[in-house]
Amino acid sequence: MEKNWWKNAVIYQIYPRSFQDSNGDGIGDLNGIIQKLDYLQYLGIDAIWLSPVYQSPNVDNGYDISDYQTIDPEYGTMEDMDRLIDEANKRSIKIIMDLVINHTSSQHFWFQEALKGKDNPYHEYYIWRTSNNSEPPNSLKADSGSAWEYVSELDEYYLHLHSKEQPDLNWKNPEMKQAIWEMINYWLEKGIGGFRLDVIDLIGKEPDELITKNGPELHPLIHELNQQTFGNYNVVTVGETWGATPEIAKLYSKPERNELSMVFQFEHINLDKQAGKRKWDLKELDPQELHQVFSKWQTELQGDGWNSLFWNNHDLPRIISRWGDDSKQYRELSGKMLAIYLYFMSGTPYIYQGEEIGMTNYEISDISEVNDIESRQMYYDRLDKGYPKEEVLQSINTKGRDNARHPMQWDLSKNAGFTTATPWLAVHPNYKSINVETSLANQDSLFFTYKELIELRKNNYDIINGEYQTLNTGNPDVLAYIRYNVNEQIIVVVNFSKQSQQYSLQTNLNHSKCLIHNYNTGIGGSKELQAYEAFAVKVSGNNW
Ligand code: GLC
Ligand code: CA
User: Fold this and answer.
1) Atom of ligand 1 at shortest distance to CA of 313?
2) N or C: less crowded end of the chain, CB within 10 Å?
3) Which residues of the chain are modeled with pLDDT < 50?
4) pLDDT at 278
C-alpha cells in the first residue's frame, strides 16, 4: 500500500445508529453496515469513517465512551466488528475508527474509580480542582453552563468541556497516556485503516489559564501520540480541529512533523453564523466569502500540509437545505453544484451518509422530537433567557445536529428500509422520493454525480494536486477556479444561486473538454448560467 494512499482517497462517514438496522430493534448496527458494503463499493469510496461504536451510555450518542475495547451491544459484538473490517478489506475499503480521547463517559471504569478518592490510582486520570468559596474554580464554560462539576464526597470539581457525563482526561498524567496508547495499538493491530480524532485540539488545555483549544503542549502531545501509536502503521489520521487556521493546520499535517495526516477545519462551516456568537445565531451565507475561505485554504496549504474537503458530518445540517435548495425543483441541481464545486479542490473528500442521494433537513415543531443533547441544552437554556420559542426552534431546524442523524433512506418500503421496527429517530417523510433505490434507477441522479466525481478525481489526480487559483467571473454569485500543472488545466465554474447569472472569464473555454456538467446544454462560449448550473472542463496545452 502506497504511503500516502489517503491523499488519493474518498472517505465515507457512517453514523452507525442511523445507517442500517439488521436485527429489527430500530437501531442501526455493524451487521447492517456489512449488508451495505457492496453499495459503498459501487459508489467508489476507499474508506469508511465509523462514528463511535464502543460501549457507551449514549448521553452523546457514543461520543461518551465507557469502554474503548468493547463494542456496544446495540451495535453488535467484537466478532461483528472483526467481520466488518474483513468484509470491508475484501472490497478494498478501510475502516477508520473514531477516537474520542479528550474525554470519556462518566460511566467509564477509570472515572468510577477516580470518584472513590484522591488516593485512587485513577483519580489523576481526570482533571480536578478545589475551590474554597463554593464557586467553580474559574469561569470555563461547557454548553450547559460551568465546565466544572462539584463532587461533594471529594469536595472537588472535575472538568468537563462537554456535558457533565463527559469528564475530560488529564493529558498531563503519564499513566493515563500509556493506557490510551495501549488501547490505540490494540485497534491498530486489528488492521484498521486509521482514526478520526475527536476534538483533538482540546487535549493541550490549560484550564487554570482558561485555555481550551490550541494549548501550549498540544503539538508535543500529538507528536508523542503519533510516535507511540499510529506513526508506526500505514494509516490515515484526521483531527477534528475547530480552532485551526492554515498556520495551525500545517503544524498538524506537515509530514516531517509526524503528527496527523490531515485536519478537519471548520472555517467555511462558520460563515453562516453571526460573528462572535454561537452557531444558533443565524446569518445568511455570502458565496463570495465562502469562495475566499476555500481559496485561502487551497493556496496556503499547497505543498505544505493536507486538508479534508467536506460539506457534512454528523454534527452539521444537511448541505442542500443549508446552502443549496431543498425544493423539488432544485434539490438535485443544487446538490450537484455543491459537489462539483468541492471535488476539484486539493484535499481528501468526505461524504456523509445520505449526502450522495441528497437527503435534506428534518423540520420539527416541538422539542419532544429532538434527541440531540446539544440542541436540547440550547433550547432550555435560551427559553430560560427569554428567547422566543419560534426563534429557538428555527435555530434547531437550521443548525441542529439531528438533521444529519435521521435514518438513512434506502428504499420505498416502510421506514425507508432502515428498520422493520420503530426507528430510534423518525424517518424523514420525504423518503418516498429521496432514497437509494430511486437514485440508483436514474442515471441522472445526484448519486451518479458523486460516483462520477470520485472517478474523475482519481483520473486527474495530478492536476488536482497542481496549483490552485481563483478566477474572476465579474459576478459575486458565480464562483470559479482553475487547477493546473505544466500541461493541463481544469476550470470549474458554478452558479451558487437560484437565479440565472451572467459571467465572464478571461480564459476561453472553446477548446475545452467537458468533464462534468449538471445541465444537458452545451457550455462552449455561453456566458449565462442557469439556476445552480455548474461544470468542470479540462484544457490541454500550457496556455495558462
Ligand atoms: C465532536 C463530535 C461531536 C461530539 C463532541 C464531543 O465534536 O463530532 O458529535 O458531541 O465531539 O465528543
Ligand atoms: Ca439493530
Assistant:
1) 8
2) N
3) none
4) 96
